[in-house]
Amino acid sequence: MLKDLFQSPDYFRIDDLLSSEHIMVRDAVRQWVKKDVSPIIEEACQTATFPSQIIPGLGELGCFGPTIPTEYGGGGMDYIAYGLMMQELERGDSGVRSTASVQGSLVMYPIFTFGSEEQKKKYLPKLASGEWMGCFGLTEPDFGSNPSGMVTHFKEDGDHVILNGAKMWISNAPFAQIAVVWAKDEAGIIRGIIVERGMPGFTTPETKGKWSLRASATGELVFDNVRVPKENILPLAQGLKGPLSCLSSARYGIAWGVIGAAMDCYDTALRYAKEREQFGRPIGGFQLTQKKLAEMITEITKAQLMNWRLGVLKNEGKATPAQISMAKRNSCAIATQIARDARQILGGMGITGEFPVMRHMMNLESVITYEGTHEIHLLITGMDITGLDAFH
After folding, report:
1. H-type helices in the chain, by residue range?
2. Which residues pair with 282 in a beta bridge?
3. Residues 149 and 202 sit within 8 Å (Cβ to Cβ)
4. Could you report the average pLDDT of every consecutive run of 10 residues in the chain (392 residues)?
5. Residue 327 burial (10 A CB sphere; 0-12, 13-18, 19+)
6. For residue range 161-216, what is the model confidence (pLDDT) as tens digits?
7. Is 351 helix (H, G, I), strand (E, B) or coil?
8. Bridge partners, residue 153, by sequence
9. How far apart, in whole angstroms, are the C-alpha atoms of residue 312 and residue 319?
10. Residue 382: helix, strand or coil by DSSP?
């Protein structure tokens, strides 16, 4: 069993910008990751198994829907606390953070934002505790970056609707009790609908053979004439704005989360560079190694400051989707490069399970793609600053 020696880098004393509550929440998640995630995550990744035993702990810590009001079972916290939670979870593993992100930002958030009071009371408390797990169905086999082209649809049938179609690359799908699914009604308007496991015609085949996010369960959502009560339709969501607002919430968590992975890679590489000797001295004393380490901590610090400022804007209700896109793209890009540089510093040891770097490196190849690819986020920024739409 590997010992978790992680020490968080804070080169610009960013902790001074945090409240005592922020630090308490972050440290609680950090200690839980060291105790309950780090000792098991390598085996889970090697065997491509989701460690379901962590779900109750995530619920107890408040990692499911931390910004949802307490009256619905959420944490009632602010967005900086939420970001710090995701940072610490992804420091453990991107798959663990993905599980929490989907539950909070893509399942609980749309039910809270677009759902009826009855839907909120029925689903949110059980989702917050982890008694029920959820997933989010937007991406389809032929429509990823262009979700408006989706073909999943439903038609009315008395007090029910009949849902047909398929979604893919869905985190949590294999074990989720509910799915928040986005589909077109008979008028072609995109609506959100809650589909429950056990409804005839609803299946969730698992996606096998992944080389990334191996400790996270991924699957498909298949709807074959699924009868869903009309009361399961989210009443306040019409059009693509609904699912895109969910993605903005999730992207915000990713912007923070991947910096946790980057911090873990940096901390591992720094420790190794001080201990590993070649040519009669620690490799950390060589210029090219110091260049890598100096660039790592610089990019981590810049991303930490961007995320903190974005959190302040989120708390004030001023953060724009384009700002969130920029932060997600930046964090994913620098985390991916830091993982690669850390792997080089570790040499051959960097590809083994004795260190977390290669696992982070593989995971980040998924995170830089999902919730909007690097290129899509570049175009979102480009459209925001020029006012010109390059998507069409």
Report:
1. 20-32, 38-46, 55-61, 79-92, 94-101, 109-114, 117-129, 241-275, 287-315, 321-346, 357-367, 374-386
2. 277
3. no
4. 88 98 98 97 97 98 98 97 98 98 98 98 98 98 94 98 98 98 98 98 98 98 98 97 95 98 98 97 98 98 98 98 98 98 98 97 97 95 97 83
5. buried
6. 999 999 999 999 999 999 999 999 999 999 999 999 999 999 999 999 999 999 99
7. helix
8. 164, 184
9. 8
10. helix
Per-residue tokens: 224 = 């074959």
The whole model's pTM is what? 0.97
**Cα 150 to Cα 190: distance, rounded to the nearest angstrom:** 9
Reading the block at residue 385, the tokens are 């600053």
Give me the residue label for tokens 């890598």.
292
Task: Summarize pLDDT for 325-366 with one digit per residue, the tens.
Answer: 999 999 999 999 999 999 999 999 999 999 999 999 999 999
Which two three-digit tokens encode residue 293? 């380490």
DSSP 3-state of 10: coil
Which listed residue (60, 316, 371, 375) is catalytic? 371
Question: What are the pLDDT digits (tens) for 42-59?
Answer: 999 999 999 999 999 999
Amino acid at 40: I
**Rg of the Cα atoms in the chain:** 21
Q: Name the nearest CA neighbour of 140 among 148, 132, 130.
A: 148
Helix (H, G, I), strand (E, B) or coil at 224: strand
Tell me if 353 sits within 8 A of 301, measured CB to CB: no
Active site residue 371: yes
Give CA 25 to chain center in angstroms. 18
Summary mean pLDDT of the chain: 97
* C-alpha span between 176 and 75 (Å, rounded): 21
| Dist CA 385 CA 388 (whole Å) | 8
